[in-house]
Model the fold of this input.
Amino acid sequence: MDEEEFFDAQFPGASPLLRCLRTQDKEFDRICLDYQEMFAELARPPDPEVVLEPRYLADLAETISDLRSCIETKLSNDPDASAILNKTEGLK
Done:
């Protein structure tokens, strides 16, 4: 799955706006990249030779949630996002 498909799956219909916002704001671009990396880390199949501590997984899930909230807030505050949010009935 490429980056565009990932963000379209995570934020249906918002990937063109995300792409535009990311080119305009380097910090937001970093947030999006971190979100994708952390999500991939959490979704990775477990390695039987590596035992992950529950605290690490909890911190990872919390970080993903925080990053997603940042992305949703940025999308919600953008005037062009209203049409997308209405079309998709909000971000899920």
About this structure: The mean pLDDT is 85. Helices lie at 3-10, 15-24, 26-43, 54-77, 81-88.
